[in-house]
Amino acid sequence: MSAPVTSIPTSNGSKKRTQTEPAAVRWLLISIALVFLTLFLALPLFAVFTQAFEKGLTVHLEALKEPDTLSSIKLTLITAAVTVPLNLFFGVTAAWAIAKFSFPGKNLLITLIDLPFSVSPVISGLIYVLIFGLQGWLGPWLQAHDIRIVFAVPGIILATIFVTFPFVARELIPLMEAQGKEEEEAALVLGASGLQTFFRVTLPNVKWGIIYGVILCNARAMGEFGAVSVVSGHIRGMTNTVPLHVEILYNEYNYTAAFAVASLLAFLALITLAVKTVAEWKVRQQLDNN
Amino acid sequence: MRLFKRQNNVLPGFGLTLGFTIFYLSVIVLIPLSALVFRTSGLTWGEFVTTVTAPRVLASYKVTFGSAMIAALINSVFGVLVAWVLVRYRFPGRRIVDALVDLPFALPTAVAGITLATIYSPNGWVGRFLEPHGIKVAFTPVGIVLAMTFIGLPFVVRTVQPVIEEIEIELEEAASCLGANRWQTLQLVIFPMLLPSILTGFALSFARAVGEYGSIIFIAGNMPMVSEITPLLIITKLEQFDYRGATAIACVMLLTSFSMLLVINLLQKWSRRYAD
Fold it and tell me: What is the complex's ipTM, to 2 decimals?
């Protein structure tokens, strides 16, 4: 393998290098990058929290205690609680089949698993309306049996499963491929059963990869807007998830409440980034150890 | 030991896991997506063409693809700069900045949308400084570009960053020993190595921007013919119960996404060949 990247000169290093830019250029580039990132990333993040607490903590908490807000939080938690385990199970299964075995059509399968990422969220919602909606394929049958999928909770969950479908799988496949299958083979030869091998050998090896996939899957499941917006029907207190509730409050010019609820999601995003950074670091460390 | 004879892989569960993978993939992704294509085939060719080339629809393509193109270009320039700075230079707070780059992945689009709209509105934190100069961002097509730049940035940075990390310092040393100055090394040695990943990042950022909905609708103003994006037009048609119109336009968008996916796959193949 190629040599690891050679140590990079530290900015306070005294040794002269021809392989880097003059200090003035360096600091100019750093400044441009930081100004750009501040304007585009840090400022919006800061603004969410400032707007949320603009009228004080009491108003902030009042907005969160509103019944419609609470029911939207409940729905979002339910959605994530169904979506994440299903996609986790799928991700692990798919990664086992794809990373540990070779078969024809593998690359096509990987491309198909990634498909939901390249579809517009609006289309992700629309396809379920086309199948389960009143004018859809199964619409008349569902109505005859009094089952509601679109403009109800099942539709929201389905659309969320679709948009978060690839997260766990696409994280685990390369990781499990990189780790090979020697350890599993050793366990099996020593008499472990298939499931024992998976839980005692494979799982500890990919633990951080799974955490990484799950945290991203969860963030998207709780934050998805476009797809859910199409299938939800926007019934207040019934089929509104937290992001949809933010939209309603904002469109009612109730900015403080909108940002108070939005700050919950922004806080979730911060936790996600923190866990993701740690998981990324652990995965790298584990791969280096191999 | 029958297992050993039958195939040279001792690990169990291949049939079961592959079977479940294909089943779940079909139920959640493939069958619903094919529903869109089948529903479109219910239209005659003439109806389809009339629907997807109506003036309002054409204007929405122009807004969507044009803005996505500008946003992807902005991201290509600043994304490469950010990736370079993060890999090559050391400065206080570098790790936090590195983690922050992924914010657009983690922050729900609706939150990004209302926040950008608030900051860049005429009396917002940034908007109030732009307003006197006659620059209007929120509720104009410029706002669309802004939101698309926000959501697309991590794609370029995260595609280019690992490639910069992999560049062997010897190459730059060789270039400088052979008499190249720093600018020549960057231009003639480093840039060609980064090009495939920059193009991949550009394509990823463009593809994401084209489909984006949540962060844009709050800041766009959504005026038909001026600042109405195609995903919003699909929703508008749905709300008017014009399922055929919505399906036809969605089909055009889906085909565009698939072509983009093909281009991205080819680009990635190219960049990998380049790396070896």
Answer: 0.88
How far apart, in Å, are the Cα atoms of A56 and each of B6, B158, B270?
A: 70, 38, 54
Q: Which residues of A touch B233 (CB under 8 A)?
A: none
Measured at the CA of B173, the angle between CA B168 and CA B174, to 5 degrees, comes to: 100
Kindly report the backbone phi and psi dihedral angles of residue B56, in degrees, each rounded to the nearest multiple of 5, phi listed first.
-65, -35
* N-to-C CA span, chain B: 40
Of B114, B211, B238, the CB nearest to A246: B114
Interface contact flag, A165 B89, Cβ < 8 Å: no
| All domains in chain A, ordered by first residue | 56-289 (1.10.3720.10)
**Chain A residue closest to B111 (CA)?**
A262
Other CB atoms within 10 A of residue B46 CB: 8
A151 in contact with B, Cβ within 8 Å: no
Query: In this complex, do B11 and A101 lie within 8 Å of one another by their Cβ atoms?
Result: yes
Cβ-Cβ contacts under 8 Å, B232 against chain A? 122
Contacts of A60 (CB under 8 A, 6+ apart): A52, A53, A256, A260, A263
Chain A contacts in chain B segment 133-192 (CB below 8 A):
149-150, 153, 165-169, 172-173, 176, 182
Cβ contact (<8 Å) for A225 and B104?
A: no
Using the Cβ of B272 and the Cβ atoms of chain A, whether some distance falls under 8 Å is answered with no
Cβ within 8 Å, pair B111-A120: no
Per-residue pLDDT of chain A (290 residues; tens, 9 = 90+): 344 444 444 444 433 445 678 888 889 999 999 999 998 899 999 999 999 888 888 888 888 888 999 999 999 999 999 999 999 999 999 999 999 998 999 989 998 999 998 899 999 999 999 899 877 888 888 888 888 888 889 999 999 999 999 999 999 999 999 888 889 999 999 988 889 999 999 999 999 999 999 999 999 999 999 999 999 877 777 789 999 999 999 999 988 999 999 999 999 999 999 999 999 999 888 888 76
Size of interface A-B (CB pairs under 8 A): 289
Q: Do B107 and A223 lie within an 8 Å CB cutoff? A: yes
Residue B242's region, left for phi above 0, alpha for psi from -120 to 50, else beta, is: beta
Burial of B188 (0-12, 13-18, 19+ CB in 10 A): exposed
| Single-letter residue type at A11 | S
